[in-house]
Amino acid sequence: MAGDIHKLNEKILKYEEFLNETLRSDLNRIVTCRDEVCKQISDYLQLRNIVESLQITDQIDKPMKTLMNLGSDFYVQAFVPDTSKICVNVGLGYYTELTADEALIFIERRVNSLKEISNKFTQESVKIKAHIRMVLEGLRELQLIDNEATS
User: Are 6 and 130 in contact (CB under 8 A)?
Assistant: First the structure.
């Protein structure tokens, strides 16, 4: 009887360890990755809005004054002498100059691709959350058995 209780307590500890060290850390990693992808989507959508605004106001090919964020919400005034070409992050730290029309096409494709990646991360996080619920339910059952055995 004491050996069974000891084995049961070991199982409970292994499940708790698996839950805390594997499942929850995997969930945190997936959520962090998804948040980074969502930030990239937001940045591309912001760029799209700026490009469309330049096109609507017929400011393409004209000089422009703007505020640039240097980080930590510290802004400086910047002067852009030529807005006919836009530097766009195409991935892996590479930037290329594109026209406004090319930039809009690229942004749409990139955002769609990033949305697919975000959806995959979301699906993976749902699976991990389901595993967490399943392990928690198993732990509850084992703890009930342990409580009944010690009573």
Answer: no
H or E segment and range at residue 123 = helix 100-150
pTM of the model: 0.79
- Distance between CA atoms of residues 54 and 67, nearest Å: 15
For residue 99 the two structure tokens come to 């026209």
Architecture of domain 1-150: Orthogonal Bundle (1.10)
How is the chain split into domains, by residue range? 1-150
Could you read off the pLDDT tens digit of each residue along the chain, which spans 151 residues? 566 777 878 888 888 888 889 999 999 999 999 999 999 999 999 999 989 988 888 877 788 888 888 888 899 999 888 888 889 999 898 999 999 999 999 999 999 999 999 999 999 999 999 999 999 998 888 888 777 777 6
